[in-house]
Each structure stands twice: as C-alpha cells, then as structure tokens.
Write a structure and sequence with these properties.
alpha+beta; Ubiquitin-like (UB roll); five-stranded mixed β-sheet; 34% helix
C-alpha cells in the first residue's frame, strides 16, 4: 500500500505501486481535473504540485510519492480565488481548455518561487504545451496574477469567492436587443 497526502487528505492507494500518479488521481480518487495528454511527460496537461514542485503526474509512480504532499487543480482554490485562476479568467486564456489545469498548476508553482517573473522566467518555467497557442495570453495572465498576489492589481472579471458563477451572471443587466433595420 502506498500512503501520501492528496489535497490535504491522507490517502492510501491499494493499487500496483508502479501505477502512475495520474491514474491514481483520476481513477481511484476521481480527481479528473488532472488531464491525460501524452503519457510521456511532454505536454504538461497532467501537471500537479508535489511537495511544492510542478510535477508531470504521468511520469511519477505512486510508490515514488510515499509520504509526499500532492495538490491538484481541485484544491488550488475551490472558489477560484487563487490569483492565477482569477488572472486566467480575466485574460481569457483558455481556448479549448484541455491543457489549462496543468498550466495553472505550473504557473502557481512559478509564482510561489518567483513572485515577479520576467517573460524569460515564464518561458523557462512553463514548458507545458498549449495546442491552441495561447502563450501570449498565458504570459499576460501570469504577470497579472503576480500583480494580484502582490496586491498591486485587482481583478473584476471573475466572480468574487463564494459567489456562484450563475448568480453572478444573473446580476448583469440584460442588454437591449439590437435595433431593427429600417425598411426602405
């Protein structure tokens, strides 16, 4: 049996010790925010945080994690209050969205280690692949998240913590229908 902590909960997996963390998280713990991309550690869709480091969960076995602390996208902040999640929404980063949870986790680790990264720092730390090519928005979002985390910037795009997105959407006044074209 393999024991470690996932999202602040002790877990004990009764699986083959050589099972990749990705499949333990998705299949045994039902934490499906961690995505399967390439299965080789190249794309980064499966990135999680292990003991403060961004780790491609498809490349590490559960046996290697004995006693470790793992954080998945589900526990970064359940209410989207984490600066990276707020900035991701504000900058409209996701296109297809498949790689985004891994990108967000890698960005969170980067900002924990370097609260004011340059574009070169971002490019060196975020090696995840985005098939849609949203890299300029990713860089902007990471710089924006750094400002949010430092308190020098505020965010207005995402609902504040504790507000259901559907409630926030209903609070927006309805737009008037477009004027009808005049007949000539």
């Amino acid at each position: 049996m393999t024991r470690f902590t996932v999202n602040n909960q002790p877990v004990q997996y009764r699986m083959d010790p050589q099972t990749p963390l990705l499949w333990a998280l998705r299949d045994a713990s039902n934490l499906t925010g961690t995505k399967y991309g390439c299965g080789r550690g190249d794309c980064g869709a499966c990135t999680v945080i292990v003991d403060g480091e961004a780790v491609r969960s498809c490349t590490v076995t559960i046996a290697q994690l004995e006693g470790s602390f793992v954080t998945t996208i589900e526990a970064l902040s359940r209410d989207r209050s984490h600066a990276v999640q707020q900035a991701w929404a504000a900058e409209n980063v996701p296109q297809c969205g498949y790689c985004q949870s891994g990108m967000i986790m890698a960005a969170a680790v980067l900002l924990d280690k370097n609260p004011n990264p340059t574009d070169a720092d971002i490019d060196a730390a975020i090696t995840n692949i985005c098939p849609c090519g949203t890299y300029p928005r990713i860089r902007r979002a990471i710089r924006h998240a750094a400002g949010i985390a430092s308190g020098s910037e505020r965010i207005a795009a995402a609902p504040p913590p504790g507000i259901d997105p559907e409630d926030a959407a209903r609070a927006v006044p309805a737009l008037s229908p477009p004027p009808r074209a005049r007949k000539r």
